[in-house]
Amino acid sequence: MSEYGLEAVLNPSEMFLTEHDSDSEILAGLAVAVALDGSRSFAVEVQALCVSGSRTRGQVVGIPSSRADVIISILMKQAGLKLQDSVIFLNVVSGFNLTETAGDLAIAASICSSFLEFPIPNDIAFIGEIGLGGELRTVPRMDKRVIAIAKLGYRNCVVPKASENLLKPLNLDIKILPCSNLKEFINTVFRPEG
């Protein structure tokens, strides 16, 4: 809504992403999920802050707290992250409610990024559900999500290995990074360059 009436929103994902200047420092704890709302795909930024030794209680905004608790528990059990001594704050930018499991991988990536103090390059998106055994599971309409994120200029997309064959025929200008489980995902995204 503007002063002249209703106007079309050409790129709704812009509302859910932090502005990054090309020469700005990339911050730890930020990851991009691809969510569906009806028939539209949105790039949505998930933020995490892990603070060790704090006496405050963590907060979760825009993610069901029960889902956040499950993902944190899986990261501790299946990926071996020592999160029990950290207070974790989670937030989805611009008040978007990320209720579908397709955002699990982005939530895990933001937590790992903050905990490990390892910034994620801002050209990577994450799509996938995390199972209780740490396995990565495909979600509905993977192709539509990857096409949407490629159109937004993302160069890499981490997805469950099970969806790799579905995405190969798309022939998009985006590198698909398939992972089977959380350990493989952490080794793919959070390995030092060089």
Give a brief outline of the structure.
The protein is an alpha/beta fold and 194 residues long. The chain contains 5 helices and 9 strands; from the N terminus they run E-E-E-H-E-H-E-E-E-H-E-H-E-H.
Describe this structure in words.
It comes from Brachypodium distachyon (Purple false brome). Pfam families: ChlI. With about 190 residues, the protein is α/β, with parallel strands linked by helices. The chain has a single domain, classed as Ribosomal Protein S5, domain 2 (2-Layer Sandwich). About 25% of the residues lie in helices and about 25% in strands. It contains five helices and nine strands, in the order βββαβαβββαβαβα. The chain has a seven-stranded mixed sheet with strand order 3-4-2-1-5-8-9. The chain has a two-stranded antiparallel ribbon with strand order 6-7. The radius of gyration is 16 Å and the shape is globular. The termini are far apart. The relative contact order is 0.17.
- Give the integer mean of the pLDDT values: 88
What is the name of the CATH class? Alpha Beta
Termini distance? 48 Å
Net shape: globular
Major sheet details:
7 strands, mixed
Percent of residues in β-strands: 15-25%
CATH-assigned fold name:
Ribosomal Protein S5, domain 2
- Briefly note the structural class of the backbone: alpha/beta
